[in-house]
Protein: MFS transporter
Organism: Photobacterium arenosum
Amino acid sequence: MSKKGLTRRFGIQQCLHWTIVGIMIPVLILIFQSRGLSLMDIGIVMAVWIGSTALLEIPLGGVADTYGRRKTYLISLLVNILGCIVLYFADGLPFILIAAMLLGTAKAVYSGTLDAWFYDSFRRQPGQQSFHSAIATIHVFVTLGLAAGSLIGGWLPDFASRSFPPPSRFSGLNMYDLNIVLVAIASLVLIVITLALILEEDQPVPSPADQHQTDAFQTSLQAIKTAFRHAVLRRLMQTTLVFGMVLSGIENYWQPYLSELIHGTDYGVTFFGCLSALYFLMSAGSSILSVRLLKILKGSHKTLMFSTRVAAGIAFIALANTSQPISFALCYLVFFFLFTAGNNSERVLLHEQTETRVRSTMLSISSFMITCGGVLASLFFGMISEHYGISASWTLGGLLLVASSALFLFMPEKLATEVA
């Protein structure tokens, strides 16, 4: 199989995976609000969700490196299905918190599995395609999947409201229940598809259980030490923390913010889905454009990341001051176009500076930093949003993003690969 063939195969699998994720994106916070949760409650739920991910990210990265990446990924789908079942039946904060823990655990199990598999498999295949170009292609598949999922996710509640009005025997269902059911069923189907598309080489002959535990622990410990000592990886981890804070801040509160703007207008929940879909299409466009931008910047990944993150911070501040649905949509799309433009460069540097045997763990550490930022944002921004408004928390997030971007300037421009 060629590099391009492998990229297409992985891209299809990722498109399906993120389509399933996208189904919940336009309505997740609305689901919580429909169950009676306040903004502070939502902040607590999201902190538990991403906190569960953060606690398990690194240990499970070591498990994926030790036991097998595809096997670990498939387990994440099963945990995700269980989380959806609990969320479907949850009718108050306690059960929603349990669902959040399960869904956060599923994300931790998934993190760093197939991405690591793809990089190692890509290097073994013949062909001239660069990894940065391959990542850009994969990102397009991912964002197309997210866009499709978001459109479906935004359309389903309106469809449920029109199709099952009172006194239908289904009228007692929450208008968002179809989203949860579809995610659970689609995750089950994806297990079968992944077994067909992702072909993992046989793992080494298993050693005793205690040796496996030692190997996984040592792998995680070594990767952690390298992540915060390496000249490039250290800066990536620091900026990733703020990236996670900003991402969580907008993901948690864009739906309540937009709900206030469209109150009393003709816009429905479908508008949320359309906006989410457009965001992902903009992200796909930025991924494609990043290849050209990198050439213009003479291959300087750090310059690309610095300039786009600073511009994204400014766009975020502008978003925080919008007062009309259309101006909100424009600023929202511009923000995410800039915010994601440097992601491919970040992934390339992360892979290039990491050794194969700890790759899943290093990717999990990076994801751990995102989730740590998300926990901080969910608690801190939740408090600010409750007492001072969402605009205040977003303005602060934009300032943090601009300030943290300066760390890229301290990253070495050229560095021989120092693997973990």
